[in-house]
Write a structure and sequence with these properties.
The complex is a heterodimer of chains A (about 120) and B (about 120).
Chain A lengths: L3 E4 L2 E4 L4 E8 L5 E7 L6 E7 L2 E5 L6 E7 L2 E7 L7 E8 L12 E2 L3 E5 L1
Parallel strand pairs in A: 2-11
Antiparallel strand pairs in A: 1-3, 3-8, 4-5, 4-9, 5-6, 7-8, 9-10, 9-11
Chain B lengths: L4 E3 L2 E5 L4 E6 L4 E9 L5 E8 L4 E4 L2 E6 L4 E6 L8 E9 L9 E3 L3 E6 L1
The chains are: A mainly beta (about 120), B mainly beta (about 120).
Chain lengths: ~120, ~120
């Protein structure tokens, strides 16, 4: 199974709402990532989890709160977002650096299209 | 910040033609990867080339890497309408373990293949 799944596919939320994005993979990958992508732009890294621990936070505002409950799941909790946070949110996973065969070749989910009103 | 820069930004070709896009980067890399993204969807990994490799093939894809010029190219031969997508290069820094799998994506090349 080489699939990364993300739910929901689309999300519309008001600025006072609290919502969560979910990501799941069953490839045994120990690194998982959240990216934000605006239209016609490359993905921007937000967070990296390695072995369920947060290893990189790219100075993301605290209204985005990641969580890695176990090695297969990654959540992104959203609270008090701004309209400019509307974007495609992508989750990805990869093997860790100790695996030489495919170092950090990332597998992406289909994304959650988020609209903040 | 983006490490990879790509050109052209957009490419329009007809089916059967070859498509070539280039990627330049600034710092030492462990590997360079190419991804494809269909409109509004997730990215799909196409091919990875390590810093000690110069050329790699996968089906209709050919990737070259010139570390002295800090550049790479992706060639898609005999293009098809289904190749219409955005293509991104992404580099993994040679500074391990600091990078922890942090890929630096280029700005992307939007390719349109018309029947």
């Amino acid at each position: 199974d080489t699939e990364v799944t993300q739910t929901p596919k689309h999300l519309v939320m008001g600025m006072t709402n609290k919502k969560s994005l979910k990501c799941e993979q069953h490839m045994g990958h120990r690194a998982m990532y959240w990216y934000k992508q605006k239209a016609k732009k490359p993905p921007e890294l937000m967070f990296v989890y390695s072995y369920e621990k947060l290893s990189i936070n790219e100075s993301v505002p605290s209204r985005f709160s990641p969580e890695c409950p176990n090695s297969s799941l990654l959540n992104l909790h959203l609270h008090a977002l701004q309209p400019e946070d509307s974007a495609l949110y992508l989750c990805a996973s990869s093997q860790d650096r100790t695996t030489e065969a495919h170092p950090y070749e990332q597998y992406f989910g289909p994304g959650t299209r988020l609209t903040v009103t | 910040s983006q490490q990879g820069e790509e050109d052209p930004q957009a490419l329009s070709i007809q089916e059967g033609e070859n498509a070539t896009m280039n990627c330049s980067y600034k710092t030492s890399i462990n590997n360079l990867q190419w991804y494809r993204q269909n409109s509004g969807r997730g990215l799909v990994h196409l091919i990875l080339i390590r810093s000690n490799e110069r050329e790699k093939h996968s089906g209709r894809l050919r990737v070259t890497l010139d570390t002295s010029k800090k550049s790479s190219s992706l060639l898609i031969t005999a293009s098809r309408a289904a190749d219409t997508a955005s293509y991104f290069c992404a580099t993994l820094s040679a500074k391990m373990p600091d990078s922890w799998g942090k890929l630096q994506f280029g700005a992307g090349t939007q390719v349109v293949v018309t029947p």
